[in-house]
Write a structure and sequence with these properties.
Layout lengths: L2 H15 L1 E4 L5 H15 L5 E2 L4 E3 L7 H7 L2 H11 L4 E10 L27 E7 L10 E3 L19 E2 L7 E5 L4 E3 L8 E9 L19 H6 L8 E2 L2 E2 L1
Antiparallel strand pairs: 1-8, 2-3, 3-4, 4-10, 5-8, 5-10, 6-7, 6-9, 11-12
């Protein structure tokens, strides 16, 4: 399969079933490097401890490996096909689910979770999950409902059916439409489960986070646009204004 065919398959899966899985998105070396970085962050003073997880926000602030992740050419190409040019980073964080932490409720992500009335016809946003440890049913791997991104209402509690589990090894990537119903399962293992979360929105949707100040994360124009630090040229009927 060519790179273009692989990209086409991922895009088609997200549009039709609400999610796609990208096996081997990162190789073992790159995945281990990120795992080492995030382990230190989760144990440091910048970690935020919540009832359901430990989080570290704005990973682009914490070193080149995280910034490099945002500009991988193949990843960028998939995001452009799904969200259009000049899409924006909405959230970039570490999520560590510890043993015995509570199960999430079924939910959808930003911006759909902020809407009084759902809309259809556009993805608006994506949630990407990059495991840094194995994801299995036994440690509460992400569960999701295929095709649920096309529904305009959330199900009643207890009425979710046909869910699948994102069962995978570190370095694979889950790309999920923001409107796809999903949750974190119950971690019955003796070990924490960690992943990097990357959320993106179309260029006209306000991201969850404000643009950062100037810093090494804005080393290129593409990164500054992605982070909301710089607006791309605006046009009217294709003419620059």
């Amino acid at each position: 399969m060519t790179i273009a065919q692989h990209r086409t398959g991922l895009v088609a899966d997200v549009r039709t079933q609400g999610y796609a899985i990208w096996p081997g998105f990162l190789d073992a070396r790159a995945t281990e490097q990120l795992r080492e970085h995030t382990t230190r962050l989760a144990e440091g003073e910048l970690a935020n401890h919540y009832p359901k997880s430990t989080r570290v926000w704005d990973l682009f602030r914490h070193g080149e490996p995280f910034v490099d992740l945002l500009v991988l050419p193949a990843f960028t190409a998939v995001l452009v096909e799904l969200l259009g040019e000049n899409h924006l980073l909405s959230d970039f964080s570490l999520n560590v689910v510890h043993p015995r932490q509570p199960v999430d409720g079924w939910h959808i992500d930003y911006p759909y979770n902020e809407m009084a009335a759902r809309v259809s016809g556009s993805l608006l946003g994506l949630q990407c999950v990059l495991p840094l440890s194995p994801f299995h049913s036994s440690n509460g791997a992400t569960e999701l409902v295929p095709g649920s991104h096309a529904r305009l209402s959330l199900p009643e509690p207890g009425q979710v059916a046909n869910q699948v589990v994102f069962d995978t090894e570190p370095g694979s990537l889950l790309i999920m439409a923001a409107a796809t119903r999903h949750r974190s399962g119950f971690n019955t293992s003796a070990h924490p489960r960690s992943a990097i979360l990357l959320s993106f929105v179309e260029r006209w949707v306000r991201p969850m986070n404000d643009p950062p100040e100037s810093g090494p994360w804005g080393r290129t124009e593409a990164l500054r646009v992605l982070l909301g630090m710089q607006r791309p040229p605006e046009t009217i009927n294709g003419v620059l204004i």
